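Appendix B.2, paired examples.
Example (i):
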Amino acid sequence: MSPWTDDCVDKLKGLHGLGCSASQIAADLGLPFSRNAVIGKLHRLGLSNPMPLVLARRAEKSRKRRGKRKSPNRPMAEPRMPIPFKPRPLSVNADTPPIGARSLLALGPDECRWPYGDRDYVFCGAPTGGKVYCVGHQRLAWRV
């Protein structure tokens, strides 16, 4: 059985007509009615649109907010021009292995692992300073 009796519905319509919020109506109706129950019932009754009093309150608030905004006549900042990208010249030839090229098993932990070859790979082996590739191969790999 629905808790919405004819008396509750009449009270709901009256409070809604006065411009009360759904929370205020739910508090006035009592415990079995939540804010969401009031909103659902208003929607089913076709009264879900806000009444003119509520709209007037919202318009008054927006007028107050508009007065606090900055003037639209303030000068605009100049647009920033993007910096053109200039790639650095590569200092390493990617096709020919350097003189000190090594196999993977002969590489130390701080030596460049840039591969050369198609089947029998050899690696650069230049000092890296704790990175994977040496400075020249880093530029080649990441184009920095």
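Example (ii):
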Amino acid sequence: MVDIQTISIVIASASVVAGVIYYAIEIKHQTKIRQTDLAIRLNPALNMNGFEFQQLALKLSTLEYKDYDDFVKKYGPLTSEKPESMAIHAVSNFFEGIGLLLKRNLVGIDMVGDYYGESAVFAWEKVKPLIEGFRKQYNMPRLWEPFEYLYDELKKREQRGVNSG
């Protein structure tokens, strides 16, 4: 027969175990929040103000080129400090940061898709030939890989039929 004292010991022990599990989960959650905050603070592209980013994104959207070689011929190399190259780098670096947060599971695809979806897809499709050409020319096959990951995940989300908003 189980007495009241044994039952109270079992309940107290279970409460301690539940508390420890809750605390461990909470620490993991807080660590994730701190890592995300640090990643955002360290990335200057993620700290651009809205107006500055819109100017760069608009500049990118107005560029006309057929491929990497055509871009270089019209606007100069991507390594230049010309406004066209700077817009490509700034927008790509911005989405690179978002892609990295997504890849590391620090943000979810639904939040990213709802907030940046169409802009990120448009930007990747616009710069893809430039990135591929740059990767090849400078033997940097992983350049802007998280940006490409972001694009791929957004396209998968789109194929699943998840709508923005």
